């Protein structure tokens, strides 16, 4: 009898990833994993399994390397200034394309979409990213159908989100999609996420 989780979610981490791009979705998805009857598994992984230093200095130690993380149903690719060199790294982009072939659902937060675009995964598809990177996204692939207003864009096997805190909204959408709307509402209540502009 298999003990493997029916849903495995991997959050890719790298140097200069934006902190909230990583920990926002992680908080949502890990809360879901702890309370859902589906018992999903949420893990973090880096290219080599070593620790990373995020954009503002937070250090993270991932659970796995890209080589030993095992099969994933969902990948969350955060943004941050670290995406710029990765979007120019041909070896990394080839890995992202291989990931596409083995993973049912690829998601991105913020400028993670730039890497997907550079890898050719967003051609002719609707997508979004941080408002300040919309022009970069268009330059990387002019065929991307950019949605400058959405908090996230679900295009079936690829889901992109706008900047930073929008990753929380996207992660809640993933819970609703993979589990149920009621479960997503329970997670939202559990983490007491009820955004209202302070000004």
UniProtKB/TrEMBL annotation:
Domain of life assignment: Bacteria
All copies of domain DJ-1/PfpI, residue ranges: 8-176
Pfam family, one: DJ-1_PfpI
PANTHER family: ARAC-FAMILY TRANSCRIPTIONAL REGULATOR, HTH-TYPE TRANSCRIPTIONAL REGULATOR RV1931C
Protein name: Thiazole biosynthesis protein ThiJ
Taxonomic source organism: Cellulomonas cellasea DSM 20118
Upper lineage: Bacteria, Bacillati, Actinomycetota, Actinomycetes, Micrococcales
């Amino acid at each position: 009898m298999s003990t493997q989780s029916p849903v495995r979610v991997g959050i890719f981490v790298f140097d200069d990833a934006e902190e909230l791009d990583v920990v926002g979705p992680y908080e949502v998805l890990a809360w879901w994993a702890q309370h859902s009857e589906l018992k999903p598994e949420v893990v973090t992984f880096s290219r080599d399994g070593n620790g990373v230093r995020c954009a503002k200095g937070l250090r993270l130690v991932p659970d796995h390397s890209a080589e030993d993380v095992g099969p994933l149903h969902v990948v969350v690719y955060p943004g941050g200034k670290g995406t710029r060199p990765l979007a120019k790294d041909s070896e990394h982009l080839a890995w992202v394309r291989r990931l596409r072939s083995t993973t049912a659902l690829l998601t991105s937060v913020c400028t993670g979409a730039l890497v997907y675009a550079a890898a050719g995964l967003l051609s002719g598809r609707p997508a979004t990213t941080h408002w300040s990177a919309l022009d970069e996204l268009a330059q990387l692939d002019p065929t991307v159908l950019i949605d400058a207003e959405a908090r996230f864009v679900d295009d079936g096997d690829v889901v992109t989100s706008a900047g930073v805190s929008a990753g929380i909204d996207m992660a809640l959408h993933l819970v609703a999609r993979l589990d149920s709307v009621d479960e997503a509402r329970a997670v939202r209540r559990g983490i007491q996420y009820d955004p209202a502009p302070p000004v």
